Amino acid sequence: MKGSQLTLYAANQSHRKGHKTIVDWVLDEVAKAGIHGATVTEVSEAIDAQGRYHAARFIELADQPVAVMVAAPDPQIDALLERLRPAGVRLFYTRCPVEFEVLGEPPAPAGPAELAEPSSPEGGAG
Prior knowledge:
Elements: E1 2-10, E2 16-17, E3 20-21, H1 22-32, E4 39-42, E5 45-47, E6 53-55, E7 66-72, H2 74-84, E8 92-99, H3 112-115
């Protein structure tokens, strides 16, 4: 498939949108845009769009920068950006064209044996 890779950067993990952390809020918006996967990367150091330095420190991790990356068809990326723009949350992002696919076989559906409660081992000493 062809689409875009969108990476959203937040200056630090302590930022909030309502009662959620920025990461939780972004991941919720990703799901609402119909995108089924995301990668969250905690960054050790960064300089934000205003030139301020942010870093994870031994005592205080709240200033640790974070990045959320998604890859999806362009209409879903567009929908995500349209959901994020009016929210008033300051995020920097990059968007690059990509080709992507899932490799390997899809997982087999769970059969009746896998859905049943695990059985306890039969015990007994002879």
